[in-house]
C-alpha cells in the first residue's frame, strides 16, 4: 500500500495539471489521502508501525465478500526490538511524497505527514532489519527479497524533495555506495526493488541543478540510464525481455506490475531529459527522450488492447477484457443484490468455480496480464495472470495522465507491435492446485496447447525452463526440451494437447522452440 501511495503522489506531482484537465485531480488526491490517513493511524508512536492486518493463510482459506468475513484477523507491527527498515522506509517515502501533494491545499496536514515521515525514516535508519524477519507472516506473500537498503535511500530522496533539508540529500550521497544506490544496475522497478526509481529521482535533482555533490548524483544517473537503455533493448546483453507482441516481460507472477512501473519511469525520464535538453546515452548510441516516451506509450497501448489477442488488461475498458478475475468482491454477487450470508468455504464452492463472468465489474483494475507468449487464461484460479493489484494501477495513473496530455488514444499513431508468428498456437498455463506434504509445498500446473491454425501441426518442440519436478503428457527430447508424446503424431486444427507437471517452485517458463505446420 505504501508503494502505491508513493507512486500515486509522484504521478500527481509530475502530471497533476493533466489530471485537472481530465477532471480527475480531486479523485487522485482523495485516493492518496485515503492511504495517508491509514498510515497516520498505523503510526501511533515514533518507533511503532502497524504493518499488516490478517494472516495470508487464514485469509486465503476463505472466499467471501468483505461484508461476510468473520475470520479472526490479527494485526502485526514493527518496533525497536522487531525492526522493519524496508516497511518503515517505504511508508516514510509515501508520506513525504504525499506531503508535497497537499502542501498548498492542506498545509497543516502536509506538515503532519512530514513529521511522520521524518520519524519513520529515523526509525528505519536507527533500528535496521527486514520487516519480514520481524513479521514472518508476511514472508509467504510479500517477501522482502531486496532487503531495506533501497528503501532507506528512497525515503531520503523523498524527504529531501519534501523538506529541501540538505541532511537528506547528504545522506543519499554519503551512503550511495554502501547502500547500493550507485552500485546496483537494475532491470526492474517494483514495490520490493526501488533502486531504479530512486536513481531516476536522483537524476531529476541533478538535472535541475539541486543537491550537493554532483559527481555522486551523476553516478546515480548512470544507473538510471542503464535501466532506460535496458527498457529500450539498447543495453547490449543486459536488456529487459519482451513478448513477441511487444510487452515488457519480467516474470510470470503479475508481470503487469513491472510493465506499468517501467512505463512510468520511462515517461518521467523522457520529460526530465527534454526539459534539460539532454539525451540518453546507451551502449548502442545516443537516444532522444521521445523514444522513451514512445516505448512507454506502446506499453499503454498493449495494456488497453493493442496486442495479439486484442484483449484489454484493464477491466471494463474496451469490449474484450478479463471476465473472471481473481478477486473476491468482483466474483461474488453484490450484498445489495443478495444479502444471504456466504460462509468461509461456501464461496469457493459457489462462486470461485463459477463458470460465468464476474457479477461485479471491477472497472479500472489492471490484472497480472499475459504470459511470455502473449497468451492469457481468463480464469480466476490462475491468480498469476488474473489477480489485480493496486501497485499495478498506481504507476499507470501518471503515464495515462501524460498520454492524456498528448491527446492520444490506445490506437497508437506509431508503429504497433507485430503479432507473434507463434500466435497460431494458443498456450494456456495455469496453476490448478497446491498442497503441503511432509512440510513442503507442492504446486500442480496444467498446460493446454491449442492449434488455432487451419493447418495440421506436424512437429512441435517446447523448451521448459525452471522445471523442478516430473512432467506428464510429453516426450523428453533433450535438455529442457520436449516433443509430442508417443501416442500423438500430429495435432489437428482446433485440437489441444494437454500436459501437467508438479514441483515445489513457481511456474516454469514454456516457449515454442520449433513448430512445423503441414
Q: Any key phrases for this structure?
A:
alpha+beta; Glycosyltransferase; Immunoglobulin-like; globular; carbohydrate metabolism; Endoglucanase; CBM_49
Gist of the model:
The protein is α+β, with helices and mostly antiparallel strands. The chain is built from 16 helices and twelve strands. It has helices at 2-22, 25-42, 56-61, 85-101, 107-126, 131-134, 149-163, 166-174, 195-207, 214-231, 256-275, 289-303, 328-331, 346-352, 383-386, 390-405; strands spanning 49-53, 75-78, 280-282, 285-287, 425-437, 440-451, 457-465, 471-472, 475-478, 481-483, 496-503, 509-517.
If you had to describe this structure to a student in words, what would you say it looks like?
With 518 residues, the chain is an alpha+beta fold. Among the domains are: 1-55 and 72-175, Glycosyltransferase; 423-517, Immunoglobulin-like (Sandwich), CATH 2.60.40.290. The chain is 40% helix and 14% strand. It has a 4-stranded antiparallel sheet, with no helix packed on it. It has a 4-stranded antiparallel sheet with strand order 9-10-7-12, with no helix packed on it. α11 (256-275) runs parallel beside α16 (390-405). The chain is globular, with a radius of gyration of 24 Å. It starts with a helix and ends with a strand.
Strand content: 5-15%
Count of helical regions: 16
The stretches of 5 or more residues where confidence is low (pLDDT under 50) are 408-422
CATH third-tier fold name of the domain at 1-55 and 72-175: Glycosyltransferase
The average pLDDT is 92
Helix and strand element order: HHEHEHHHHHHHHEEHHHHHEEEEEEEE
Taking the alpha carbons of the first and last residues, their distance comes to 52 Å
Sheet with most strands: strand arrangement: 5-6-11-8
Under the CATH scheme, the architecture of the domain at 1-55 and 72-175 is: Alpha/alpha barrel
CATH class of the domain at 1-55 and 72-175: Mainly Alpha
Instruction: Please give the share of residues in helix.
Output: 25-40%
Strand count, sense and closure of the main sheet? 4 strands, antiparallel
Q: Count every beta strand, where a strand is a DSSP E run of 2 or more residues.
A: 12
Radius of gyration: 24 Å
Shape: globular
EC number: 3.2.1.4
Protein name: Endoglucanase
Organism: Ceratopteris richardii
Subcellular location: Secreted
Amino acid at each position: 500500500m505504501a508503494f502505491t501511495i508513493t507512486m500515486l503522489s509522484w504521478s500527481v506531482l509530475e502530471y497533476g495539471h493533466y489530471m485537472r484537465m481530465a477532471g480527475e485531480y480531486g479523485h487522485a488526491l482523495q485516493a492518496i489521502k485515503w492511504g495517508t490517513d491509514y498510515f497516520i493511524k498505523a503510526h501511533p508512536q515514533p518507533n511503532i508501525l502497524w504493518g499488516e492486518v490478517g494472516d495470508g493463510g487464514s485469509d486465503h482459506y476463505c472466499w467471501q465478500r468483505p461484508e461476510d468475513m468473520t475470520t479472526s484477523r490479527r494485526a502485526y507491527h514493527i518496533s525497536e526490538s522487531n525492526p522493519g527498515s524496508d516497511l518503515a522506509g517505504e511508508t516514510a517515502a509515501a508520506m513525504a511524497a504525499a506531503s508535497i501533494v497537499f502542501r498548498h491545499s492542506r498545509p497543516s496536514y502536509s506538515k503532519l505527514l512530514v513529521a511522520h515521515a521524518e520519524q519513520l525514516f529515523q526509525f528505519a535508519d536507527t533500528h535496521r532489519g527486514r520487516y519480514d524477519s520481524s513479521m514472518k507472516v508476511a514472508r509467504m506473500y510479500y517477501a522482502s527479497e531486496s532487503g531495506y537498503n533501497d528503501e532507506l535511500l528512497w525515503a531520503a530522496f523523498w524527504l529531501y524533495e519534501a523538506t529541501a533539508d540538505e541532511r537528506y540529500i547528504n545522506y543519499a550521497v554519503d551512503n550511495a555506495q554502501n547502500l547500493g544506490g550507485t552500485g546496483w544496475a537494475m532491470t526492474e522497478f517494483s514495490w520490493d526493488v526501488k533502486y531504479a526509481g530512486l536513481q531516476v529521482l536522483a537524476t531529476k535533482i541533478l538535472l535541475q541543478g539541486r543537491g550537493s555533490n554532483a559527481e555522486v548524483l551523476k553516478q546515480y544517473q548512470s544507473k538510471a540510464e542503464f535501466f532506460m537503455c535496458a527498457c529500450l533493448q539498447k543495453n547490449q546483453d543486459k536488456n529487459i525481455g519482451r513478448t513477441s507482441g511487444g510487452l515488457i516481460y519480467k516474470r510470470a507472477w503479475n508481470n503487469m506490475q513491472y510493465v506499468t512501473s517501467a512505463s512510468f519511469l520511462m515517461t518521467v525520464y523522457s520529460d526530465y531529459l527534454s526539459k534539460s535538453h539532454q539525451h540518453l546515452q546507451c551502449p548502442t548510441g545516443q537516444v532522444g527522450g521521445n523514444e522513451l516516451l514512445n516505448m512507454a506509450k506502446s506499453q499503454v497501448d498493449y495494456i488497453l488492447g493493442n496486442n495479439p489477442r486484442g484483449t484489454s488488461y484493464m477491466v471494463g475498458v474496451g469490449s474484450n477484457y478479463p471476465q473472471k478475475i481473481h478477486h473476491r468482491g468482483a466474483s461474488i454477487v453484490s450484498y445489495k443484490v443478495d444479502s444471504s450470508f456466504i460462509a468461509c468455504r461456501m464461496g469457493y464452492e459457489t462462486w470461485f468455480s463459477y463458470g460465468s463472468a464476474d457479477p461485479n465489474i471491477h472497472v479500472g483494475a489492471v490484472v497480472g496480464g499475459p504470459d511470455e507468449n502473449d497468451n492469457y487464461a481468463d480464469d480466476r484460479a490462475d491468480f498469476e495472470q488474473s489477480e489485480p493489484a493496486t501497485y499495478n494501477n498506481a504507476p499507470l495513473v501518471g503515464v495515462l495522465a501524460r498520454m492524456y496530455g498528448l491527446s492520444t488514444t490506445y490506437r497508437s499513431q506509431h508503429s504497433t507491435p507485430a503479432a507473434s508468428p507463434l500466435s497460431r498456437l494458443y498456450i494456456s498455463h495455469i496453476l490448478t492446485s497446491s498442497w503441503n506434504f511432509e512440510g513442503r509445498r507442492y504446486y500442480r500446473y496444467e498446460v493446454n496447447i491449442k492449434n488455432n491454425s487451419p493447418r495440421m501441426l506436424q512437429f512441435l518442440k517446447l523448451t521448459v525452463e525452471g522445471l523442478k519436478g516430473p512432467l506428464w503428457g510429453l516426450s523428453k527430447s533433450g535438455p529442457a526440451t520436449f516433443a509430442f508424446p508417443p501416442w500423438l503424431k500430429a495435432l489437428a486444427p482446433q485440437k489441444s494437447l494437454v500436459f501437467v507437471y508438479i514441483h515445489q517452485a513457481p511456474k516454469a517458463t514454456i516457449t515454442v522452440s520449433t513448430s512445423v505446420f503441414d
